Structure formats: C-alpha cells, structure tokens
Amino acid sequence: MEPSSLATKVRLLHSDDPKQHFLLVEGDDDSRFLRSFIAPGAVNLMPSYGWPNLVKALKQLSDFPGTITAIVDADHERVGGNKKDILHALRTDGHDMESMYLFSPATHRVLAEFSAPIHAFDEAMSLARVWGAVRLVNECSNLGLKFEDFDLPSHSSCEVSELLFELQRHSSITRINIEE
User: Fold this and answer.
1) Nearest partner of 89 among 102, 105, 77, 101, judged by Cα
2) Cα–Cα nearest to 95, from 62, 135, 64
3) Residue 10: which of 50, 43, 51 has the closest Cα?
4) Which of 22, 84, 107, 177 could form a disulfide with 68 if both were Cys (CB 3.0 to 4.6 A apart)?
5) Is the pTM of this model over 0.90?
6) Is-contact 99 159, C-beta < 8 A?
7) Distance CA 66, CA 58 (A)
8) Rounded (5°) CA angle 121-122-123
9) Residue 69: helix, strand or coil by DSSP?
10) Going residue by residue through the chain (180 aa), what tens digit of pLDDT does each one get?
C-alpha cells in the first residue's frame, strides 16, 4: 500500500468515527502478533507494508487530529547507530518481531523439550548471524538484493561472501562490489 493511500484510509476512517484510535505497524506479521494482545474494536490495527511506507504515512499524517501510534522494528539502527526519531512511533527491542520470539524464554523451553541434543538454538543463532550480516550489508550499501522466495536453508552453511553471491544471482543483479 502506498503511503498516501494509507494516510487517506486513516483520515477516511477517522471521519466516520472520530473516537477511533489507529496503530500502524510495518507488516502483516506484526499485525497478527499484536492482534492477539489487543481487544477487538479497541484500535484500528493497520499494516503499512514496510518501514519506509510507515514513516512516509506518518509524515503525511503529522497534522492528524486523532490518536495515532506506530510500532516500528529497531532494524539495524542499534548496530549502525543511525537512529532516526519518528513522530508517534515506538520501537521494538530487537531487529524485528521475529528476533523477539527467538530470545523469548518460551522459545528456549520449547527447544529444550523438543529439539535434538545438538543445540538447535546455537545452530539457529549461527545462521541468524550470517543472515543478519548479509541484510546489514544490503541495507548499508543499498545493494537492492531481493530476499523474497530465497531458499535460505539450502544455503545455511554458506559464508557471508558466498551468500551475497547467491543472493546477487537470485536478485538478477549483474555485479556487487563489496570490499572485504
């Protein structure tokens, strides 16, 4: 959804019910997760389909007379130190909701009870570190790599440089020039 469409939708819904509260989130996963904690009808939970869309929509709603809040992922800001203030936005603790699941005590209990003795959490973290490094390089270098439909498990033993090469092929980018 385009930011202007999201902003228009918020304004139209507000004109129908001025007492309505709005909570913008980055994506469908965030929306599904938060929906389980919010009473039905308490707030209009709206995914923006990406951090840039959410930020642009909030800017377009800067003069909005109603109640609007956003929840955004911390993304790579804590690593890169380039935290940007976003009006009416709360940040998650981790890179994204999935990282919050990963570090929850419930995840550790489930893995301890149902995983093989080979420390599934350690293996998942090893893969997550490589994947996180690739995503960080992609974002900081504006490579334009496409992560959708990429089969990560088949590349789980790759080093960062190999994974970048495979993603380059997957993304149909002719050349990536990254200095080691």
Assistant:
1) 77
2) 135
3) 43
4) 22
5) no
6) no
7) 12
8) 90
9) strand
10) 899 999 999 999 999 999 999 999 988 888 888 888 888 888 999 999 888 888 899 999 988 888 888 888 776 555 555 556 666 676 665 555 556 666 677 777 776 777 655 566 676 667 777 777 777 777 777 777 777 777 666 666 666 677 777 777 777 766 555 554
Q: What are phi and psi of 69, to 5 degrees?
A: -135, 155
Cα–Cα distances in angstroms (integers) from residue 79 to residues 10, 44, 140, in the given order = 33, 32, 11
Query: Quick one: tokens of 142?
Result: 């504006």
8 A C-beta contact, residue 173 and residue 143: yes
CA distance 42 to 147: 34
Q: Residue 31 corresponds to which tokens in the numbers above?
A: 């929306």
Residue 136 phi/psi, 5-degree rounding, is -65, -45
Residue 53: strand, helix, or coil: helix
- Strand 67-72 with 44-47, pairing: unpaired
User: Which two three-digit tokens encode residue 52?
Assistant: 């840039």
